[in-house]
Specification:
By secondary structure, the chain is mainly alpha-helical. It has three domains: 722 residues, no CATH class; 100 residues, no CATH class; 44 residues, no CATH class. It is 74% helix and 5% strand. It contains 27 helices and ten strands. Strands 1-2-3-6-5-4 form a six-stranded antiparallel beta barrel. Strand 1 and strand 2 form a beta hairpin. The chain starts with 9 loop residues before the first helix and ends with a helix.
């Protein structure tokens, strides 16, 4: 490619705009006051804990990347992976980590500023929190798009100097391998952050709320700083890395599919090359325009004073909807500029605007999944209200109803994704060309993620608002401050849940595109390895020949037919193995040379070759790997449900999803166990200190009368630093095994079950991982908001409920009669001050247990699954060359071939 298309420049311009606006929003937030000295002290403790965690995590991830780059170096030395991957993979991981660092720094700087801002007005607090979240969103899209733009420009202009002679198809395939860096960093960030935050949250909830009766954000709760740190490392850095990977991977996968689709439609012609460039530039330019639309959408988010929950939610939805409408209009303009007079697209009978429908399918699917997630997790809607009602009979029924609602909720996301995939495939011309249909699915994923700058802002906003509430609680701010931060926090819980749904939906479309890209990479590796094998045998070849490599693959050589009068090399597949007896094929020795024939004496454009038999009388037909379709590759490897290797791969893919969940949930359990013991130990020391200071047992039994700080045997309690250290050490220790499982399993499976087994694993992992992730995220979100719903009633005492009709009518009618009886019983027993409903009641404690179960569901295992299904896909892509070369050999040893 001699020059870059003009529309390409929309991508780097958009990337630069995103980073500039991130700095602008960051500066506007940092100009605001953090409040009084105590607010600053608490914010600084959270900030130091978060940054200390990130530094430790990045050291471990850096060590993993060193090993990964070394292995990629061995692959490059063997000729199975381009050497550029040794640079592109760690660069993608580094930029993803950099986004996490900047996002975390902004979030921890914004919490106290948000708490201070809500003293003035609710809108001020929303503005600070939301624009702080926008810093994360804009950093993610900015760095990711600049990374892709950089490599596209460098390889387009200087690719041949790096040894890339296969044109745009090879270039985009090489770039696709770089996303392994982003995926690896994302998995460590998500798993490590999820384990950290839930270990702290479980300790703060079960020991602080349930056992000691202290709110999780109370300054006397030893786990409260660790809990606030965890909100940031899990929901800011973790979510940012997650969506960075989806955004980055969807663009690269779509570019690779576009280049391959152009060849499948028009062959190796100059017209096809121009069409390929347009298809590759489209997702880049679309992402660049999406950044502009996201920035405009961010400026529209505002709230009026005394706004209700639904009004706040509408204000966030309005910003996202504005961005979505703008990108839809711009997408059609972009496609018109690229394809309105394109002859190749017209030859398929596909109008220029039809790929725009694919983009619309992706955008609408993202919005539908987000709204469905909101319906099943927000306490404004029946599912979560029903879980809160079930709390009347204890934690068991809360857990049962939460699991049921989570399972039921999967239908919306799954059905929406099916419609989006089918619609995007058909709209892009999948009926006429399979690869064009898959390109439509890929660009639908890019469309869904094109407004990530604002959609990620609505997610990162949540933990900032949560931390603001914690800061207000710990520093004893006036009641109206806590009320406003609670409103923002409740909104943040819903936006976080919808953000997880959005991430999972985008992961499904991205993984679908990567599944198709894997087949393309396998095809490219067969061709490349055939060329290497043919060159090694060049001394014995003087006529057009097919040299048998083994396992039904041939290296084809046409002396003098290549560029500049050199030899033309290709691979060839014996797709129809019925042409040769099985025993005869097994007896063929690698290196056996056959004469080869091609119609019209033009091997470059040949779809098939006719290979002579040793007896000289008959021939059999092989398929050119350069011109092979996806169907040819799948037929060659017998990728069908009747193949035991495919079925075995399907089962392994499903197993990976469940095993990964088990490992991460057990990791949370072990870390939480240590946290709970530490909290109990500290509470015991604090009680002893209070006794020494002369407090009565009655005072000690009421935690609300405890001083916020006390010294016992030379140690100040609560000792926040120890709890932070427990969460940090637990997360670092526990995140390694699940992460390595996701990296090593696809390679090991590929070597044992070959390409067919990998295809089965990717399909099984995608389907099971997607469904389980939606279930876990929605069940966890519903449990969390059921707890928040009960807390929204305040503390209703038996005396107040028994004598006040207005209070009685504020309680849901489904539980009112039971609460009336409970209140009357307490009044008769002289316990009129006892809490009968709302915060601190038995019902509330039941929802706290449900929320504790849901914590690892929604913040650890569930969100990490969407990274798992993409990581196993990209690992398979990167190590496809290894599987193609050695998978059949290992299969022979195991008698599986």
């Amino acid at each position: 490619m001699e020059s870059l298309p003009s529309l390409y420049w929309l991508a780097p311009i958009g990337g630069v705009l995103a980073l500039v606006m991130a700095r602008v929003f960051s500066a506007s937030v940092m100009r605001r006051s953090e409040g009084d000295a105590e607010m600053v002290r608490i914010a600084q403790a959270v900030r130091e804990g978060a940054m200390a965690y990130l530094r430790r995590q990045y050291r471990i991830v850096a060590a993993v990347f060193v090993g990964l780059v070394a292995f990629l170096g061995v692959m490059a030395w063997l000729g199975l992976q381009p050497g550029l991957s040794m640079l592109g993979v760690p660069l993608a991981g580094f930029l993803s980590g950099l986004c996490g660092w900047f996002g975390m720094k902004m979030a921890t700087n914004a919490s106290a500023r948000t708490a201070h801002a809500v003293k003035t007005s609710l809108n001020e607090g929303l503005t600070v929190a939301f624009r702080s979240g926008a810093v994360m969103g804009l950093n993610v899209v900015g760095f990711a798009l600049l990374d892709v733009s950089f490599w596209f420009a460098v390889l387009a202009l200087f690719g041949e100097r790096f040894g890339l002679s296969g044109g745009l198809v090879e270039m985009t395939t090489v770039m696709l391998s770089f996303s392994m860096g982003a995926s690896t960093q994302a998995l460590f960030a998500r798993v490590g952050g999820g384990i950290y935050t839930k270990a702290a949250d479980v300790g703060a909830d079960l020991v602080g709320k349930v056992e000691a009766g202290i709110p999780e954000d109370d300054a006397r709760n030893p786990a409260t700083i660790a809990d606030n740190v965890g909100d940031n490392v899990g929901d800011v850095a973790g979510m940012g890395a997650d969506l960075y990977e989806s955004y980055y991977g969807s663009i690269l996968a779509t570019m690779a599919l576009g280049a391959a689709a152009a060849v499948s439609v028009a062959g190796l012609t100059a017209e096809a090359a121009g069409f390929a460039v347009k298809l590759a530039v489209a997702p880049l330019a679309l992402a660049g325009i999406g950044i502009v639309c996201s920035v405009l959408g961010i400026f529209t988010v505002r709230a009026k004073e005394n706004a209700t929950f639904s009004q706040l939610l509408k204000s966030l939805h309005f910003g996202v909807n504005v961005a979505s409408v703008l990108i839809t209009v711009c997408a059609f303009g972009l496609l018109y500029s690229l394809f309105h007079d394109d002859g190749v697209l017209a030859s398929l009978g596909v109008a220029w605007w039809r790929p725009g429908l694919s983009i619309v399918f992706g955008l609408v699917a993202g919005l539908v999944i987000a709204h469905a997630t909101e319906y099943y997790t927000s306490y404004e809607h029946p599912p979560t209200k029903q879980i809160a009602i079930q709390a009347l009979t204890g934690p068991a029924t809360v857990i049962i109803s939460g699991i049921a609602e989570g399972m039921k909720s999967t239908w919306a996301s799954l059905l929406t994704t099916v419609v989006a995939i089918a619609g995007a495939f058909a709209a892009a011309g999948g009926a006429d060309d399979f690869l064009m249909g898959l390109y439509g699915v890929g660009i639908a994923a890019v469309g869904m993620l094109s407004t990530l700058g604002i959609t990620l802002a609505t997610d990162a906003y949540g933990p900032i608002a949560d931390n603001a509430g914690g800061n207000a609680e710990m520093t004893g701010q006036p009641p109206h401050v806590r009320e406003r931060t609670d409103m923002l926090d409740s909104l943040g819980n819903t936006t976080a849940a919808t953000g997880k749904g959005f991430a999972i939906g985008s992961a499904a479309l991205t993984a679908m595109a990567l599944l198709a890209a894997y087949v393309q990479v396998v095809q490219a590796q067969i061709t490349k390895q055939a060329g290497v094998f043919a060159r090694e045998q060049a001394a014995v070849v003087s006529e057009p020949s097919a040299i048998y490599e083994g396992h039904g693959i041939f290296a084809v050589v046409f002396p003098g037919a290549g560029a500049g009068g050199g030899a033309y090399y290709d691979g060839a597949l014996l797709v129809d193995r019925r042409q040769i007896a099985r025993d005869e094929l097994r007896s063929l020795a690698p290196g056996t040379v056959f004469p080869v024939y091609v119609e019209n004496d033009d091997p470059v454009r040949a779809m098939q070759y006719r290979v002579g038999r040793e007896d000289g009388r008959s021939v059999f037909t092989v398929v050119s790997t350069t011109q092979a379709s996806i169907r040819d590759i799948l037929d060659f490897y017998n990728v069908s449900l009747t193949n035991p290797k495919v079925l075995g791969g399907l089962f392994i893919g499903v197993m990976l999803a469940f095993l990964f969940c088990a490992l991460t949930m057990n990791a949370v359990g072990r870390a939480a166990y240590r946290m709970m013991n530490e909290c109990r130990r500290q509470f015991g020391r604090m009680r002893e200190a209070f006794r020494k200071e002369g407090m009565s047992e009655t005072q000690i039994s009421d935690p609300t009368q405890w001083p916020k700080r006390v010294n016992y045997e030379g140690v100040d309690y609560p000792d926040y630093a120890t709890c932070v250290s427990i969460s940090t050490a637990g997360a670092q220790r526990e995140m390694v095994l699940p992460s390595l499982l996701a990296i090593l399993a696809p390679v090991a499976l590929g070597l044992v079950l070959g390409v067919a087994g990998v295809m089965g694993m990717l399909a099984g992992g995608l389907v099971a991982g997607f469904a389980v992730a939606v279930f876990m995220a929605n069940a966890g979100g519903a449990w969390d908001n059921a707890k928040k719903l009960l807390e929204s009633y305040g503390r209703i005492t038996a005396e107040d409920f028994h004598h006040n009709k207005v209070t009685q009518e504020s309680v849901p009618v489904e539980v009112r009669a039971a609460i009336v009886d409970r209140a009357a019983e307490f009044v008769r027993e002289g316990k009129g001050a006892a809490i009968v409903y709302g915060k601190g009641s038995a019902d509330h404690k039941a929802t706290v247990v449900g929320d504790t179960v849901g914590d690892p569901f929604k913040d650890t295992s569930g969100p990490a699954l969407n990274i798992l299904i993409k990581l196993i896909s990209i690992v398979s892509v990167v190590f496809a060359g290894l599987v193609v070369k050695y998978g059949a050999v290992v299969g022979d040893w195991l008698r599986l071939e």
